[in-house]
Amino acid sequence: xxxxxxxxxxxxxxxxxxxxxxxxxxxxxxxxxxxxxxxxxxxxxxxxxxxxxxxxxxxxxxxxxxxxxxxxxxxxxxxxxxxxxxxxxxxxxxxxxxxxxxxxxxxxxxxxxxxxxxxxxxxxxxxxxxxxxxxxxxxxxxxxxxxxxxxxxxxxxxxxxxxxxxxxxxxxxxxxxxxxxxxxxxxxxxxxxxxxxxxxxxxxxxxxxxxxxxxxxxxxxxxxxxxxxxxxxxxxxxxxxxxxxxxxxxxxxxxxxxxxxxxxxxxxxxxxxxxxxxxxxxxxxxxxxxxxxxxxxxxxxxxxxxxxxxxxxxxxxxxxxxxxxxxxxxxxxxxxxxxxxxxxxxxxxxxxxxxxxxxxxxxxxxxxxxxxxxxxxxxxxxxxxxxxxxxxxxxxxxxxxxxxxxxxxxxxxxxxxxxxxxxxxxxxxxxxxxxxxxxxxxxxxxxxxxxxxxxxxxxxxxxxxxxxxxxxxxxxxxxxxxxxxxxxxxxxxxxxxxxxxxxxxxxxxxxxxxxxxxxxxxxxxxxxxxxxxxxxxxxxxxxxxxxxxxxxxxxxxxxxxxxxxx
Length: 566
Description:
The record marks 489 as: Interaction with DNA. By secondary structure, this protein is α/β, with parallel strands linked by helices.
């Protein structure tokens, strides 16, 4: 688009940004006004349940107002009673209180398979009583069988977290960075604060602990892993679209784990020094090793129970992919794992020139790198088996030659404006490097098949996927999919020349045993079922399918469309 057209374009971005600023300046955690929609003509105050009526300002937890466990590094703080022995000083013992073999207790998700669920919003889903494709975040935490929970995130509202916990829980571990934890203000939650231990990461400058993962340990020694796209705040749950990946129930293993000091990632830049017989456990352990700084491991003893679990239900098609800043012992970028994860194509495959789509759906886009951008000049060349494209101005011509189509799903200014909350969800979407995407014509928006309940509400999830499907629906089957906390930025991914700055985590999903990896949209499964209203008579889609929150019928940006920018 020409510079002249840009100058003549009405400045809709500024209007939306002004509305967002005005709204957020006065927004209270405890109440939220429902916007007027086709279903609701009058503003209505939502009762968000389990929230405090106390309007006093809640503080950011820092090292000044809690027990400082490690005076030298400020890496571990503990909110438990001073007389209690600090758990990071020793292995955290897992005591099995009672078994669940004969129990009818229902865990979130499936016991034997992984799955995706759309996180339920009190705004968009108030008319849906139940759906097998929706997850209430409270279902993760309000479980009488839950013994310990370990929460990795970028932002934490303790009042939000504590409001979801069951009183039977024994320990709450929060892993994050300083300045991102909001304290609670309700006295009834003091019982949970006494059970809380906070582990601070040691971040380099200009970096974030952006990973999002919850590990639940249950009283029979089993565990579940959750990867929500949201941080631990109520507004993130109810305003933008959010999804969650849920692992199978991981039972104690009957097999002995193999452990050695050999290098487990000989094809990557990581040098971690441990090897397990489960690829999933290996990659998870590799990620956790980056929380070690010199002689201080802020997670020491926390995750020993992971080594005793059976990962057979994950090892065939799921593996962890992660980024982490270089520390005293380890270094490497998530891109260094692409080869060992089997994501990189060969020259022979490239020469077939089979129609191939690479899609990225993210909530933020960072600065371009050198003379290109991360997606088209680094990621796709690696995945497709092309040489490095960093300094190739004609990268799109090369893609055309090899029948490669890059696609970036990102909200337009008009989509933000037209969404049911009229811009209230915009606060989580950032775009500071999209000019090259616009010039390359690879931006896509949601098609006409949006639901009336969620409309063009943007998705805070991050998906990267490859499809060579020849079906009329080009994303009916996937070659592979990455679901992650990583946005399109060097801080999140690093490059082949530069380490990442953020902590990020996700999963790589590949077809199981040579089968097909199916992809469906929550829009079709929950809201737009043919001949049905809402979720009645919904067709059951089994586990082990990739589910996305946006319609699969996408449209390229028109000349009148602009990517939303804060």
